[in-house]
Structures are given as C-alpha cells and as structure tokens.
TrEMBL record:
Protein's UniProt keywords contain Metal-binding: no
Record-listed E.C. numbers: 4.2.-.-
InterPro entries: Prolyl-tRNA_editing_YbaK/EbsC, YbaK/aa-tRNA-synt-asso_dom_sf, YbaK/aa-tRNA-synth-assoc-dom
One Pfam family this sequence matches: tRNA_edit
SUPFAM superfamilies: YbaK/ProRS associated domain
Family, per entry: Belongs to the prolyl-tRNA editing family. YbaK/EbsC subfamily.
Annotated signal sequence range: none
Ranges for domain YbaK/aminoacyl-tRNA synthetase-associated: 38-149
Record key words, sorted: Lyase, Protein biosynthesis
Listed name of the protein: Cys-tRNA(Pro)/Cys-tRNA(Cys) deacylase
Coiled-coil residue windows: none
Length: 160
C-alpha cells in the first residue's frame, strides 16, 4: 500500500484488497502525456510501463487491453483473445462515459463497470508493471499476477 494524499478509485481498491503497490507521480500540468514519456518521467524502462486501451467488439461489448506503452495493439489478436470477430478503439470522447476515467488517466483497476480485461504476455517478462492510477500524473506499480487477479483478467499475446 502506498501512502499518498491523493487517493484514486484504483488506489482505494488496491488498499481494500491489501495489494502492495508503489505510487509514482509526474508533472503533467493536468494534460495527457504519452506512455513512453511517462516511463522516462518516472525513470522506469518502457517495457515495464503499460497503457490501458478500451475497445468495442462487433457484439457492441467493451473490452480492456493493457499493453506496453511503446507497442501497438494487434486488433486481430485482441479480437481473438476475447472471442470477437473484430474490435475497434472507442472514441476518446467516450472514455469517461464508459470507464469513469479520462484519456491519459485510464486505469485497468476501478472502472465504472467490470469489463473483460486482457493483459499482454509481455507482463511475464518483468517483475512488476506500472499502469495508470486513474488520474493523470499518477502511476501504480504492481505485480502482473496481482493485477490479473484483481481485474479477473487473462494474459495473451495481443501486440504487434
């Protein structure tokens, strides 16, 4: 558990589940910052920092994919991983309505609803991964296995 004056929904969920995590923050002036820049700002390797992407399948269901910040989501592999014919990224304008988070501060933990979540297999190459804490400027570091359990996710290869 990290000590911070800021408590996001994601942090409260981690605290309640008694999951240990480290909290990082960076100066963003409240603006979304790309994930590669975030990795450099917090002094961590790009391979350890993951971004959260939200898609909608052909069935109209929403899906969450968590991938390394320097990689791109393979939409075909992503669709296969959730049993869809296809998936496409949601519109930026819809992020808050669907997840409760804003662009640049979307955490896989603590969304408005629980969506099927897939974390890229690259998470198995690092001891901990860093994802958004649910607010721009804040990141949480957690063991991949604990994140998978917390979001009831799956691990699949979903990047190019």
């Amino acid at each position: 558990m990290a000590n911070s004056k800021i408590k996001t929904n994601a942090m409260r969920i981690l605290d309640k589940a008694k999951v240990n995590y480290n909290l990082y923050n960076y100066d963003s002036n409240g603006e979304a910052v790309d994930g590669v820049s975030v990795a450099h700002m917090i002094g961590k390797p790009e391979e350890q920092v993951f971004k959260t992407l939200v898609t909608q399948g052909a069935s109209r269901e929403f899906y969450v994919f968590v991938i390394p910040v320097a990689k791109e989501l393979d939409l075909k592999a992503a669709a296969r991983s959730v049993g869809e014919k296809s998936v496409e990224m949601i519109k930026v304008a819809d992020i808050n309505k669907i997840t409760g988070y804003v662009r640049g501060g979307c955490s896989p933990v603590g969304m408005k609803k629980s969506y099927k979540t897939v974390i890229d297999a690259a998470c198995e190459n690092v001891d901990t991964i860093i994802v958004s804490a649910g607010k721009i400027g804040y990141q949480i570091e957690i063991k991949p296995k604990e994140l998978v359990e917390l979001v009831r996710g799956e691990i699949e290869s979903i990047i190019h």
